[in-house]
Write a structure and sequence with these properties.
Blueprint: E1 4-8, H1 12-25, E2 29-33, E3 37-41, E4 48-52, E5 68-71, H2 75-87, E6 91-99, E7 104-110, E8 116-121
Parallel strand pairs: 1-4, 5-8
Antiparallel strand pairs: 2-3, 3-4, 6-7, 7-8
Protein name: VOC family protein
Pfam family, one: Glyoxalase
InterPro entries: Glyas_Bleomycin-R_OHBP_Dase, Glyas_Fos-R_dOase_dom, VOC_core
Length: 126
């Protein structure tokens, strides 16, 4: 089971502001923040999304093929969250829509540091 996912950032304060607004838009809250790391979710008992300054002091980089998927309940939530991310300065990596023939619906974007995320509803909810 996943406890949390961590994304690196090179501008911690800017990234905290981005995720404070995006995660609040999705109904989640900031769980905690230190000088170099912060986490969002519904509680400490379920998986969380974290950002961090790299521990080794080197620049954060994005992984090719890596992505964080944020599950929501409706297509409207996908559309709204994708638009919110873009309005906060993220970049579009795939506008919201159906993917494949199984009913999966998602919208893809990159955060301010280039990390790829997806907001989606599972095919069973479509």
């Amino acid at each position: 089971m996943i406890g949390y996912i961590t994304l690196g950032t090179n501008d911690f304060d800017r990234s905290v502001k981005f995720y404070d607004e995006l995660m609040s838009h999705l109904g989640e809250k900031r769980l905690w923040k230190s000088d170099s790391m912060a986490a969002w979710g519904s509680s400490r008992d379920v998986p969380a999304l974290c950002i961090t300054k790299p521990f080794d002091g080197k620049n954060a980089t994005v992984g090719n093929g890596g992505m964080v998927a944020l599950k929501v309940s409706t297509k409207e939530q996908v559309d709204s969250a994708h638009l919110k991310a873009i309005n906060l300065g993220g970049t579009n990596e795939g506008s919201p829509g159906n993917r494949g023939s199984n009913g999966f619906y998602g919208g893809y974007f990159r955060d301010l540091d280039g990390n790829k995320l997806n907001v989606f509803i599972p095919a069973s909810n479509a």
